[in-house]
Specification:
224 residues; Rossmann fold; 11 helices
Length: 224
């Protein structure tokens, strides 16, 4: 039996305070294309990859798929204006470093890729302890499918029972459950605790700083 353990992290809303930036920039992209989509609905869809998010918000059967590229490009262009000032959540980098210091392998599992993922990693400022990232470019299906979590585990070379996945959305929790890893949630993405627990969260923390403060008594300690 392997003694390796993997701590897999979502990024947006979990380590970097970007969910509301995504909400506003998706809202503006929709507005420019003539769609009025409530921000509350967009917020709950954050964490889905682009095509799935558009299906979820605009209707998979009725919408015009020819709009996808335009909408996605508009969102990316609007969001990219924030790349140089994306704010890491309090103690996000410290949390990753503390876990690495305890022997955990750190991997990211995110729908971000390319320049966006690079900007997020700069914000976290803990690249020395991050083994790698399973991005949208590396999997066939995004969360809530288990593919991103499974790919992150493959990078860490651990079985599901030796991995914890920390995320902030319902989609994160569902992906963790489907891959068989331990689902842990943070509230920093703005999703209610009850929704996260219903989706499978085994433990819920306020934010990365709260999780860091409970490493000796929470789910990470139990796996050590």
């Amino acid at each position: 039996m392997t003694t390796k353990r993997a701590a897999i992290f979502d990024v947006d809303g979990t380590l970097v305070d970007t969910n509301h930036l995504h909400v506003v920039t998706w809202w503006e992209a929709f507005r420019q294309a003539g769609h009025q989509v409530p921000m509350q609905d967009i917020h709950r869809a954050v964490g889905l990859i682009g095509g799935d998010l558009l299906d979820h918000l605009l209707g998979g059967d009725d919408r015009d798929p020819d709009e996808d590229e335009q909408l996605t490009a508009a969102h990316h262009a609007l969001y990219a204006t924030y790349f140089e000032r994306l704010p890491a959540l309090d103690a996000a980098g410290d949390l990753l470093c503390a876990l690495a210091g305890r022997g955990w392998t750190i991997v990211l599992a995110t729908s971000a890729s390319g320049a966006e993922l690079s900007a997020l990693r700069r914000a976290i400022d803990a690249d020395d302890v991050i083994l790698g990232a399973a991005s949208a470019d590396d999997v066939g299906d995004g969360k809530p499918a288990p593919d991103p979590v499974r790919r992150a585990r493959e990078l860490a070379e651990v079985p599901s029972e030796r991995a914890v996945f920390v995320g902030d959305t319902v989609w994160d929790m569902k992906a963790a459950v489907r891959d068989g890893v331990l689902p842990v949630a943070v509230l920093s993405g703005g999703i209610p605790r009850a929704d996260l627990e219903t989706a499978g969260a085994r433990a819920v923390y306020r934010d990365p700083a709260d999780l860091l403060g409970h490493l000796d008594s929470g789910v990470f300690a139990d796996m050590e």
